[in-house]
Amino acid sequence: MARTAIIPADQPGAIEEALRVVQDGGLVAFPTDTVYGVGAAAFDGQAVGRIYEAKGRSEDKAIPVLLAGSGDLQRVAAEVSPDLRRLAARFWPGPLTLVVVKHVDLPLEVSPSPRVGLRVPDHPVALGLLAAAGPMAVTSANRSGDPNPTTAAQVLSALGGRIDLILDGGETPIRQPSTVVDCTKDPPHLLRPGPIPLEAVLDCLARR
Q: More exposed terminus of the chain, fewer Cβ within 10 Å: N or C?
């Protein structure tokens, strides 16, 4: 790849251009409420594999799937339990990633294990692209092990020439990765601390 294009996310036709890249099996970086992510169509295993190459990411690490809304849960989760619906209704869109048993249709490139992390980001650019493209495998738009990017310029510095397109939506508002909670455990188990405390998740489930 010779060049990474970068366009303002509010430019007319920006989402449509990003959608074309995704549909062609390319990689697009874009802002979320937490940090910038780089993503590909979740059901395109070859495209998802390019994310590992671009980041220098170990292939045994799963890539989360971002959704436009909880209505897409049945496409990516093996089972949509009442507890999962309750947490989605309470915390999505927002900085909470919920780990569930993945749908059989998701390729191994998304997750080599039976589990996958799911999230609906609270950012208009991300939601616009996800609504157009459908579920996307998305992880932080950096080289593995480097700081998480919160601006398009940081993404370009890290992944320029390795991805196809960057949507520049300004600095991300939270500037911290999402909380990750494993919902395959009972009670749910905190895998990564973040903006939403585990106590809030457990409290939500306790109000059944």
A: C
Q: From 171, 149, 168, select the one nearest 158 (Cα to Cα).
A: 149
Measured in degrees and rounded to the nearest 5, phi and psi for residue 46 equal -65, -40
14-69 pLDDT per residue, tens: 999 999 999 999 999 999 999 999 999 999 999 999 999 999 999 999 999 999 99
Mode of pairing for the β-strands spanning 189-192 and 115-119: unpaired
φ/ψ of 141, rounded to 5, equals: -85, 60
DSSP-derived secondary structure letter, 143: -
Q: What is the pLDDT of residue 1?
A: 55
Closest CA to 167 of 207, 132, 120, 192: 132
Spatial neighbors of 23 by CB under 8 A, at least 6 apart, are: 41, 133
Cα angle 49-51-55, degrees, rounded to a multiple of 5:
130
- HEC-encoded secondary structure of 1-56: CCCCEEEECCCCCHHHHHHHHHHCCCCEEEECCCCEEEEEECCCHHHHHHHHHHHC
**Given a cut of 90, is residue 125 above it in pLDDT?**
yes
| Res 207: pLDDT | 82
Is pTM beyond 0.85 here? Answer: yes
Identify the DSSP state of 108.
Answer: T
